[in-house]
Every structure is written in C-alpha cells, then in structure tokens.
Amino acid sequence: METILELKNVSKSFGPVQVIKDVSLKVHPGKVQALLGENGAGKSTIIKMMAGVYQPDSGEIIVDGQPVRFPNTKEAEKYGIATIYQELNLVPSMSVAENIMLGRTPATGGLVNFPELKRQAQEALDVIGLKVGLNDVVGDLGIAKQQLVEIAKALSMNARLLILDEPTAALTSKEIDQLFRVIDHLKTQGVGMVFISHHLEEIARIADSVSVLRDGQFIAEVPATTPEREFVKLMVGREIDEQYPRVKGDIGEPVLEVHNISHAQHFENISFQVHAGEILGIAGLVGAGRTEVIRAIAGADSYDSGRIVVHGHLLPKGNIAAAIKRGIGLVPEDRKNQGLILDAPVSDNIGLATLHSSGKWGLADRGGQRRRAKGVAEKLKLRMASIDQPVRDLSGGNQQKAVFGRWVMAQSQVLLLDEPTRGVDVGAKVEIYNIINQVTAQGGAVVMVSSDLPEVLGMSDRVLVMSGGKIAGELPPTASQDDVMSLAVANVPDNVATAPTPNLRTLEI
Ligand SMILES: Nc1ncnc2c1ncn2[C@@H]1O[C@H](COP(=O)(O)OP(=O)(O)OP(=O)(O)O)[C@@H](O)[C@H]1O
Ligand SMILES: [Mg+2]
C-alpha cells in the first residue's frame, strides 16, 4: 500500500525522561490511522514530531519514500501536513476570519486585502458547514465552536495529511457526526489522517487501523474493528470490569440549594437541591446553560435573581472566595484558560485552592502543600516526571487530572464538575469516578455536567436535563440516552437544534 508518511524507529526524550521509544508507524492515503493509548502514553508527542513541533532524537521521518526533517511546523506544512492540536491554538482576542487566515493573510500592494481574507475564511467555514460570524471574537465562542474553527482552518490549508489530536473531545454528538462526514469525504479525496480519541466507539466508526502505544512504546497495530475490550487490554495492559463504578451511599440532608436563579440570556428559573452523598448529573446540549449555572454557583459569574444556599448559608453572588470558603470546588470545562496556571509547577496547581488556608500564622505552608499535592497526584495516578514540573508539560489527560486533584486536596464538600473526564483515558476515568465516590461517601454533594451520556447516566443518582437555559426535566439514572436527548431539545429553536449540513462541494483538495 502507498504510504504518505512513515515514522521509522523514532525515539524522543525530554531531559532525562524518554517518552517515545523506538516507535514505527505508517499513514496511508485515504486511510485513518488511529493512535490509542493511556494519558501520557506519548500520542501527542508522536504527532508533534510528524508536524515539526518536536524533532526525534533518533529514527527517521519518511515522506513519499524520502527521509525528511521538519525543523519547524512551517516545513511540515509545506509537505501538506496540517494539525489540529489537543489544546486549542487559536488567538482568543482575534476574529474568526483572522484566526483562520493567520500566517496566510492575503495582501495587495503591501496592504491586507480584507475582502479576500474574508472570502477565503468564509469558504473554510462553509466546508464544514460552520455557522459563526467572520467578525466574531474567537474567545467569545464556546469551546466546541472554537474547535470547529480550528478544523476549518486546518482543512483550508489543502492538507494531504491531516492530524487530529482528540478533535471530538469538546464536540456534541451532532458536531461529531458532522466532523466524521468531513473525514469520510477527505478519505475519498485521498487525504491520509491520524486520529486520536479516548472514545473507543469513535475509533471503530472512523478509523481503518489502530496503533496502540503504552509508556511510549509501540504495542500492536490492529484493525479498527477490534472489540473494545481488546483495545482496553492492549492500552491499559489489563481488563476493566466496571466502566461506571458508582457506589451509592446514604442520601442525607440538602447540602446545596439553588432557588430560582436567573441570569438574562443565560438561564432562567433554575431550582434544584443536591443532598449529602448525592451525585446530580446535568445533561443537555452545548449552549443549554449548564456551564453558566455551575459557574454561578461557584461564584465565577454573577446572576440577576434567586438565591444559592450551601449548608444553610446564603452565598453572596459572584464571589469565588466566599464559595471556596463554603467548600465549593469547580472543575471548569476549559482547563487551559480557566483551570490551570500552565507555567506553574504541578504542586502549585494542585495546591492552589488550599495554599492560604494551609498556612500557619499567615505564612503559606509550602513544604506541606508540596507533600499533600504529591499524595493527591499519586492517588490520581498522575503521570509526570516530577511534582515540580510545569503543568504545561503534562499530557492533556494528566492536566485534567491536575485540575480535578486541586479540589480533592481542598476536600471540597460541594464538587462542581464540568465535563470532568474530557480527554481522560478509560482507565483513569475509573480512577476519577472512584474519587467522586469517595467524596459522596464522606457526605459531599456533587454536580456533574457532562455531554458524555453513558457517563452522566452511569454515575449520577438523578439527572437534570437543561434545554435553552431552563430545566426541561429530571430523569432517573435508569433512563435511556434517547430520553435525555428528547428533553435536551425541548426548548431549542429549530435553527439551533439542527446541525448545519456540511457543504462538501466547496471542498477542494
Ligand atoms: N515538553 C515536554 N516536556 C517534558 N515532558 C513532556 C513534554 N511533552 C510531553 N511530555 C511528557 O511526555 C509524555 C507523553 O505525553 P503526551 O502528551 O505525548 O501523551 P498523550 O499520549 O498525548 O496523553 P493524553 O491522552 O493525556 O493526551 C508525558 O509523560 C508528558 O508528561
Ligand atoms: Mg495528548
């Protein structure tokens, strides 16, 4: 079979730590090669070597049968290699059009040709049928739309090898369908793709062949039709019995009471209670107002009317410090922008919520903090070289675990989780669920917003479904995914509920 790109026995170390060991891999035209492995297994590092972000220490990159070197990403782009990174790479303060055309701004006589810039950017959006304004500021878009803008951008570069590092992590099922239609079309055009996802059912749907990595080593290459249990065994090295190990305990008194809160444009008349020992799931479509509600509870945003009470105490509006004092912890959906200080060490990131309270006589207890952070990291099996490593250098899933770890360390009594396992591998998910179980077993109350329907149904004791800023209904965990979806679209106007159809005619490779 013809090969677009081949990695031959590549290895890569960061400092003393070897993270890729002698890995070989081929990508063929018109085929999707999936990379599968636990958090920190080395998937992103592999694709960054294909894209010119990192250079292998040894081994070869071969394109069209010729050894090549990619000293930088521009060089890889010249060979038609386009990459969508796991962590979004858009400039939040710039417009959609500027982001798509970044580095390729059309100019006439030294001046930016804005009409042409907009025309090309619009064409890129049309390819995936994305309806956003060209002048919209990217930072104001939801994370799903930002992801699609990034995909539109990559596709517009006439890629022959498209690398997608967890492109579906922040997308809804409709948006995933849309992306997969685009991928299917690209296959017919002979584009080769590398696809990374922690959702095994997606791999079966879209990939042709799967390379499994463990601890930076190549384990096996198997067909995408391999049963999921086999995939798990290959990547984790053991079987996982229970994917959603919810342990129900006694449900106690209300811990968190939300009384009729409203925030213009965001949500309306939201009321619910969460009891000691309970996990309340919140399902709904992206844009249903789920994130806004839990941000309001966490004091991250204010609201217009209503009351929030924790353990009988009224919470002041929009006051994060007061919320933390009452034992509220928020794991936000956008870990990179809202959750982490990327250049600070893992220990500081995990200890962020407790640094002040753990100090004696007003002095921050740094040694103690570091020790406790280490304990939490071990509990979460966080994969890192050292607790003093900047969080930026952790793999995506391990960054997510670090945000989660912060509130475990703070022993939050009210844990607000927004897509808590996004980007987390199947084994580590179970570790996170077990820790959530411990929180409820100790009388904590948990609110879990999740777009992962099996997760929200598998781990919650009750599920609220939000739609168009309102609560559309409450379901028991025995409800079906279809039950959730029919409530989720209850208050959504048609134009939002139906995903735009991709306009594949404008796609030219
Ligand atoms: N710039 C860096 N400096 C130091 N270590 C790094 C750097 N980049 C990655 N690593 C380490 O290399 C290992 C592999 O990371 P990588 O991001 O490739 O994992 P991954 O398979 O993509 O995981 P995930 O599923 O969590 O995204 C991790 O242990 C990570 O901490
Ligand atoms: Mg990764």
Automatic annotation (TrEMBL):
Q: What does the UniProt keyword field contain?
A: ATP-binding, Cell membrane, Membrane, Nucleotide-binding, Repeat, Translocase, Transport
Q: Which InterPro entries match?
A: AAA+_ATPase (IPR003593), ABC_carbohydrate_import_ATPase (IPR050107), ABC_transporter-like_ATP-bd (IPR003439), ABC_transporter-like_CS (IPR017871), P-loop_NTPase (IPR027417)
Species this chain originates from:
Corynebacterium poyangense
Task: Tell me yes or no: is Repeat among this UniProt entry's keywords.
Answer: yes
What GO cellular-component annotations does this UniProt entry give?
Answer: plasma membrane
Q: How does it sit in the membrane?
A: Peripheral membrane protein
What PROSITE patterns does the entry give?
ABC_TRANSPORTER_1, ABC_TRANSPORTER_2
Query: Is Membrane tagged as a keyword?
Result: yes
What's this protein's name? Answer: ATP-binding cassette domain-containing protein
The GO terms describing molecular function are: ATP binding; ATP hydrolysis activity
Primary location class: membrane
Localization per Swiss-Prot or TrEMBL: Cell membrane
